[in-house]
Amino acid sequence: MLRISKLTDYATVLLARLAAEPERQLTAAQLAAQTRLGAATVSKLLKQLHGSALVSSTRGLHGGYRLARPAADISAAQILDALEGPMALTECAQHTHQCGIESTCGVGRAWQRVNIAIRRSLQEISLLELAGMGVQTTRFGALERQLRGPRELPVPAVSTRTEKP
Amino acid sequence: MLRISKLTDYATVLLARLAAEPERQLTAAQLAAQTRLGAATVSKLLKQLHGSALVSSTRGLHGGYRLARPAADISAAQILDALEGPMALTECAQHTHQCGIESTCGVGRAWQRVNIAIRRSLQEISLLELAGMGVQTTRFGALERQLRGPRELPVPAVSTRTEKP
DNA sequence: CCAATCTGGGACTATTTTAGTACTATTTAG
DNA sequence: CTAAATAGTACTAAAATAGTCCCAGATTGG
User: Fold this and answer.
1) d(CA B162, CA B165)
2) Residue whose C-alpha is closest to residue B79's, from A122, A89, A6
3) Has the ipTM of the complex gone over 0.85?
4) A117 in contact with B at a CB cutoff of 8 Å?
């Protein structure tokens, strides 16, 4: 349903935690405790984030993770990419095959454009904003502009992340 | 990967076919043949689209489907809604529970806003544009504006829908 | 009235994706 | 050397997605 996966959501929470204390180095276990997510899962996610160069790590005793760069320089798009691979709204946008439906397939092209537009929007949102550490002014640009409008902002529910420790 | 489901993609193709011949009434079988999708699948999709009032149907001999309203009045958001239900980027955006992570959960709120922004963008795109029957001028608004920019448009691949008839 | 041809609505199955776990290797401070 | 970390990989379980089938209801031509 055009939804991001739980893992991506978790990862954002982890990154937000790291962003809250940029100077400290936190271990996977600490982050698991703080976020109440499963230790194994947290560990896996951090590895992935490390692979995508969003966090840096030091191994060995007293090791841990921290953000690879300032939260302001990490975009939502990058987080998505790190966890879900380069995004493509439709399957056909990925391959280069021809499909049997030459006739109607301006459709593919159109979704593709939608795709790109969304992607660009996501690039404008930094981890700083996702973490609620605001500076809502400069960035959020296009998105924020659309949000301000005739309709009122719906009161958003608080997160419901459930997992057994 | 922030992707729409195959079925939604198929549905768009079907709608595009219908949009191409607004005056005719096409049967599920005809549409299946034209789009090369499985007859059963097409049938299911059309039922769903009918349920969401995107297409109208007449039963009995010489029955068939046609668009319920002009293609210009059907938005991408409506198509998404019809097939995937009201969209919510994260799981926590749906329920009203509290999650254990009160601390970091500006995150939920932020995704929520992203969500709404994307949704609003999708509302600006009509089936007419998705079908490649353009009038790219008036609508596409915010999205199109973002697309025009420093970067050049990547050449999009043609659709690769595969299914055995 | 009857048969043919449609749509309508479920129920069901297979496949794919996602989520979560476990185990082993490697690094490093003390 | 050892304890506490990360790194890598493989595996399992669960859930969502995709696709199929069947039968009931509607309509129309003969």
Assistant:
1) 10
2) A89
3) no
4) yes
Protein CB footprint (7 Å) on chain D nucleotides: 3-10, 17-22, 25-29
Give the integer Cα–Cα distance in Å for A39 and A99: 44
pLDDT at A75: 94
Q: How far is CA A114 from CA A25, A89, B129, B134, in A?
A: 39, 8, 11, 14
pTM of the model: 0.79
- Tell if B10 CB is < 7 Å from nucleic strand D: yes
Here the tokens at position B5 are 């489901």
Q: Structure tokens of B82?
A: 């019809």
- The continuous run of DSSP H or E covering B31 comes out as helix B28-35
Picking from B5, B14, B147, B1, the residue whose alpha carbon sits closest to that of residue B74 is: B14
Q: At B118, is the pLDDT very low, low, confident or very high (cuts 50, 70, 90)?
A: confident
Q: Which domains does chain B have, with CATH numbers?
A: 6-147 (1.10.10.10)
Window 30-69 of A: residues touching B by CB (8 A cutoff) are: 34-36
CA distances to A24, A77, B22, B162 from B159, in Å: 47, 24, 23, 9
For residue B75, list its beta bridge partners. Answer: B126
